[in-house]
């Protein structure tokens, strides 16, 4: 991290960049937050560790409108989102100075808490320097340990690889942390009966409090005006009134990003209710891959997007019933 | 006819028909005196591509038991390519509805040309039959909209 901070300091000092988009130490040991840094002194709070899961590419939409260049720290998977935004002309490449930061899997505090580790005072082992096998957590009940793998975010178990798709320079090493099948859970749900599927989603979606965090954090959800904010629309900015609204919100949200979602997993990470929202996106990705050919949004900026292109021989919608 | 089968349950079915082919097909079915159940309510759209996924969800919300979308045959779209986009969109939407537990039989896409009055009437009869067997839609319904 020191190397990263030194380089940032250098670029800020020589005027290459006007500001830095990174992470600032939060009020707890495990919640660094995205922040702008505009001068040397502010950089004291700069942090980059295992809890910096936040994808900063969406902030570049606003930063592209600001005067001067913005230095942005992107992890390998964040670069897919940046690329996708670039493809949609939402960000300005000229306004960004991208430092590809190393990533060895990001941590999910909820997973640590689920293991019964509460009252956390400090956590060591989450630093990026060496690939830590386990975390040592100081709690008010004494010292606890937890395997790094067991505390990783869901999305890191299905890592998209260690290669940055776009960058100006790279600092730090990355590693591919894949150890699970990306579509395993989608397949498990597909195999259920309609009653079971319905019960599963009813159970998950009834937890939704419509905080709109999933929409706000999503790098693909970047419209200036959103259908869910319209006052003419009966489910705008309010809690869900019934089970229909819960489902409609999530189907429409996922449909709006279908074919553009890079599967960055931010929606599930920020959900305060722990709803596995990535399942909706993955279902669309799985269908697109199966029906229209393998497609990874944000990988190839010139590729045809699945929902704005077609072939004459596309599958008929009846395939949904036929494949069972 | 299928309607007499069940006195209590009469399905509500929404059919989105494109102006150029399927709506004309429905017209032809009428002028040819072919019958199809009155449970089918046709909504005319300029092109099958006009059908927003929200329309389908809205129809279910307002109490539809089945939604069918009809458009020109692929290759025959009045606007050249509209139905190709609609085809991908609807495939993904129907797959998603199936994924969250809405029976797949409740959604359907059929390509009906202006000359296919017979196909229109046969498709509608078949679809209504299917919805009768599936029964009332309770999975995607807004209770406030129940009459």
Give a quick summary of the entry.
With about 325 residues, chain A is an alpha/beta fold.
Description:
- The complex is a heterodimer of chains A (324) and B (147).
- Chain A has eleven helices and eight strands.
- With 324 residues, chain A is of the alpha/beta class.
- Chain A has two domains: 2-171, no CATH class; 184-322, no CATH class.
- Chain A starts with a helix and ends with a helix.
- The model of chain A has no long low-confidence stretch (mean pLDDT 90).
- Chain B is of the alpha/beta class.
- Chain B has a single domain (10-134), classed as Rossmann fold, CATH 3.40.50.
- Chain B has four helices and four strands; from the N terminus they run βαβαβαβα.
- In chain B, strand 1 (13-18), helix 1 and strand 2 (40-45) form a beta-alpha-beta unit.
- In chain B, helix 1 packs across helix 4 (117-134).
- The A-B interface holds A 186, 189-190, 194-202, 241-242, 244-245, 247-248, 251-252, 254-255, 258, 280, 283-284, 287-288, 291-292, 306-308, 310, 312, 314-321 and B 53-54, 57, 60-61, 74-75, 81, 84-85, 87-105, 107-109, 139-144.
Helix and strand layout, with pairings?
The complex is a heterodimer of chains A (324) and B (147).
Chain A: H1 2-13, E1 19-24, E2 33-37, H2 59-63, E3 70-74, H3 76-87, E4 96-101, H4 109-114, E5 120-124, E6 134-139, E7 142-147, E8 169-171, H5 184-190, H6 194-205, H7 213-217, H8 243-257, H9 266-270, H10 278-292, H11 319-322
Parallel strand pairs in A: 1-3, 3-4, 4-8
Antiparallel strand pairs in A: 1-2, 5-6, 6-7
Chain B: E1 13-18, H1 22-31, E2 40-45, H2 53-61, E3 66-71, H3 82-99, E4 107-111, H4 117-134
Parallel strand pairs in B: 1-2, 1-3, 3-4
């Amino acid at each position: 991290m020191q190397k990263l901070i030194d380089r940032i300091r250098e670029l800020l000092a020589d005027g290459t960049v006007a500001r830095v988009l990174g992470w600032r130490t939060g009020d707890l040991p495990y919640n660094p937050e995205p922040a702008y840094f505009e001068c040397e002194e502010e950089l004291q709070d700069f942090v980059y560790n295992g809890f910096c899961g936040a994808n900063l590419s969406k902030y570049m939409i606003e930063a592209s409108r600001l005067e001067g260049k913005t230095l942005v720290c992107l992890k390998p998977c964040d670069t897919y989102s940046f690329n996708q935004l670039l493809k949609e002309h939402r960000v300005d490449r000229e306004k960004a100075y991208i430092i590809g930061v190393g990533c060895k899997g990001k941590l999910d505090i909820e997973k640590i808490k689920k293991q019964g580790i509460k009252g956390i005072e400090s956590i060591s082992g989450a630093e990026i320097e060496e690939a830590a096998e386990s975390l040592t957590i100081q709690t008010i009940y004494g010292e606890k340990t937890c395997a790094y793998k067991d505390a990783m975010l869901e999305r890191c178990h299905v890592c998209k690889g260690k290669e940055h798709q776009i960058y100006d320079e790279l600092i730090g090493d990355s590693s591919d942390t894949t150890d699970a099948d990306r579509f395993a859970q989608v397949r498990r749900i597909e195999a259920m009966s309609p009653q079971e599927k319905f019960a599963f989603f009813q159970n998950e979606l009834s937890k939704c409090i419509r905080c709109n965090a999933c929409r706000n954090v999503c790098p693909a959800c970047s419209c200036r005006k959103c259908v869910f904010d319209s006052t003419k629309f009966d489910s705008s900015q309010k809690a869900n009134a019934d089970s229909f609204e819960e489902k409609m919100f999530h189907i429409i949200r996922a449909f709006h990003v279908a074919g553009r979602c890079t599967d960055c997993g931010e929606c599930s990470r920020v959900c305060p209710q722990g709803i596995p929202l990535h399942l909706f996106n993955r279902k669309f990705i799985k269908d697109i891959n199966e029906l229209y050919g393998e497609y990874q949004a944000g990988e190839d900026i010139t590729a045809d997007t699945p929902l704005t292109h077609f072939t004459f021989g596309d599958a008929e919608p009846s395939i949904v019933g036929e494949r069972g | 006819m299928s309607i007499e089968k069940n006195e209590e349950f009469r399905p509500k079915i929404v059919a989105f028909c494109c102006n150029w082919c399927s709506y004309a097909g429905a017209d032809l079915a009428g002028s040819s005196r072919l019958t199809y159940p009155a449970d089918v309510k046709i909504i005319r759209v300029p092109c099958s591509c006009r059908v927003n996924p929200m329309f389908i969800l809205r129809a279910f919300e307002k109490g539809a038991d089945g939604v069918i979308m009809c458009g020109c045959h692929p290759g025959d779209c009045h606007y050249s390519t509209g139905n190709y986009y609609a085809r991908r969109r609807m495939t993904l939407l129907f797959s998603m509805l199936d994924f969250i537990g809405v029976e797949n039989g409740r959604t359907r896409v059929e390509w009906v040309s202006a000359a296919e009055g017979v196909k229109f009437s046969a498709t509608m009869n078949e679809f209504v039959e299917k919805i009768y067997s599936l029964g009332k839609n309770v999975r995607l319904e807004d209770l406030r909209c129940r009459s």
